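For concreteness, we quote verbatim a single protein encoded this way:
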Amino acid sequence: MAGNTKALRVRIKSVNSTLQLTKAMELVASSKIRRANEAMQKAREYTASLEKSISLLTSEKECLKSPYMRRTENPRTKIIVIAGDRGLAGGYNANVFRLCNSFPDAEFIPIGKRACERFEAEINSSEHFSFNEAFALADELCRDFSEEKFDRLGVIFTRYNSVMSWDAQIKWLLPFEKSEKDSTVSTIFEPDHLTVLNLTVREYVAGILVACLRESFACEVASRRIAMDSAGKNAKQMIDDLGLQYNRARQGAITQEITEIVAGSGN
């Protein structure tokens, strides 16, 4: 019986240590949520401006000559995959990789330590991926696309709906689709629409990529906070259950000792 109570004490201490760790990780995630949301909202506004400009440009017939509007029947696909740098974030990374499985013939470009490990690539950080790095990657991909080394470019990221809801999505970046001309908008591009489109595409791809990175990171910290909150509640429940078992075992040991003392005094 004494051995049983000792094992329970060790188990309670271990679970309590886990509880302290989950609390600390939840606090860290909570402290990052506000800044992550602010960065995400700014990136969304920038993305909206970029997409509006691209829509205006691709509505012109002359832009159909752009290599970035080239389409093929069986496109060779490249997909940028954005996952987290760490685990313990619920289904955040798993949802991203599950969506990747929907494109078995695609070539993946991972961003984030977990994605790099999965696709056996050089490790980089999704949290600290800078605009300069994004622009360098966008420049390389746009150049390869214009040289017809591949035919379609997308990015898999996690879309932020609310602090309790997010989902993995794919956004197609290239080729551009021809948009319908808005008769209410009159914009003049110099020297001409085609030149501006071909010069803007790298900025567009880099801007969208950064926005997806910021949005994915906001989802990651929100998912980690919820996961750690759930883990903390489970740990508390486990401590309560173990405490009950410990008290019963301890009471049983005391009862047995009293019984043995009474039996010994009777002899």
